[in-house]
Amino acid sequence: MTTTVRRRRLLASAALGLAGGAGLLQAARAATTIKPDARSALIVVDVQNCFVSGGTLPVTKGEEVVPVINRLAGAFRNVVVTQDWHTPGHASFASAHAGKKPFETTKLPYGNQVLWPDHCVQGTDDAALHKDLRLPTAQLIIRKGYHPSVDSYSAFMEADGKTATGLGAYLKARNIKRVFVTGLATDFCVAWTAMDARKAGFEVYVIEDATRAIDLNGSLAAAWKQMASKGVKRIQSADIATA
Question: Of 30, 76, 142, 198, which residue is 20 to 30 A from 12 by alpha carbon distance?
Answer without folding.
Answer: 30
